[in-house]
Please model this.
Amino acid sequence: MSGPPRPRRPQIPLTLLTGALGAGKTTLLNRLLADPAWSNTAVVINEVGAVAVTGAPVENANDDIVSLSGGCVCCTARGELVEALERLLRGFDNGRLERLDRVVVETTGSADPTAIVSLIARHPYLSLRFRLDGIAAVVDAANADSLAGDEQRIKVALADRVIWRRADGAADCVVRDAIRTLNPAAVILDISDSQVARTLTGIFDPPESSAGILAWLGHEAFSARPQVAGAGLRAWALARHDGMSKNRLLGFLDRLAIDHGANIIHFKGIVADPESSHQPHLVHGIGGLFSPPRALAAWPSDDRRTRFAMIGRDLDLRAVERLIDGFIGNPALDTPDLDALVANPLAIPGFRAR
Model:
C-alpha cells in the first residue's frame, strides 16, 4: 500500500553567467562565492579545463562534484550540461550535498545562452527542478572583444543584468552607450561594487512591489523608434490602449513563437485584460520560449495601457505589430483579423480565442 505522495520540492533558482572570454566572469564568480548571500550555491563551469574558482579550500571531492568550505559546490561539465545538472540533483537528493539553494552556470565565451535556456526549459525533469532566475552578462570596457561580434552582442541583449569592468577612460562612455542600445532596460552594475552579489538574486521574475514590476518591465527605457545596434539587432517598444483576454494572449504568444520565435531575443510585456480590468498579465520570453502569463493583483501604476518591449535580430517589427493588433481586435486595413490569424493549419483543433 503506497503512502501519500511526497510534496514537490521547491524549484532551485538557476542563474546563467555569460560573457566574452577574458571579460571577467571568473573574477565576478569568486566575488559572488565570497558573499554569505551566495552560500550553498552550486557552480557549473560549462567548459573543458580546470575549475578556476578560488578563495575556499576543497573539503572533499567525489564524481566531479567538489564541495567547498564556504557552502558552495563546483561541478565541471566535461560532458553534457544536462548530465552535470543531474549529478548535482542526485547529490542533493541522496544527501551528499546537505543544501542546494542556487545554481550558477558559467558558460564558455562562445556558448549561446538561448540554447542553454531552451535546453533546461524543454527538459522534462530539469524544468521541474530548476527555474531560471536571471541572465548576467560580463563586459570588460578595456577588452574590445567584450562587445565584438554577434555572439557577444546577443549575450548583452539577453541579459537582465550587465556587469562591467570599467576602463576609466573614453572607452567607458562608448561601451555604456553600446550596452544601452543593445539592451535599454538592463541594469548595469560595476564589477567592483561590494553589493553586486546582492543585486544578482531574484532578477528573472519581477518583484511584487509596483516599483519593482515597472523596473523589471523597463518599457520606458525603450523608444517607439527601433534602436539599431548593428548585426540586425533592434530594441523597440509598443503601447496600445486595448488588451487581450487570457485566451487571446495565450493564442498570441503561440503564434508569436511560431512566426517570429527564432528572431526574438528578449520579450516583456504587461497586457490589459478586458475581462478583468484591474488585473493585467505579465508576459516574458527568451527566444521562442514564453513563460505562462502571470496575473497581477493590480496595475503597478496609473498607466493601464498594454505595453510590450522587445529585442530582436532581423525581426520584422511591422509583422509583430500587425500580429498584436490582430489579437487585440484592431487590425489595420488589408491585414489579418483574429479569425484569419487563428484559422490556420497549425491551429489547435477546436481552439478559438474569445
Observations:
- The two ends are 46 Å apart (CA to CA).
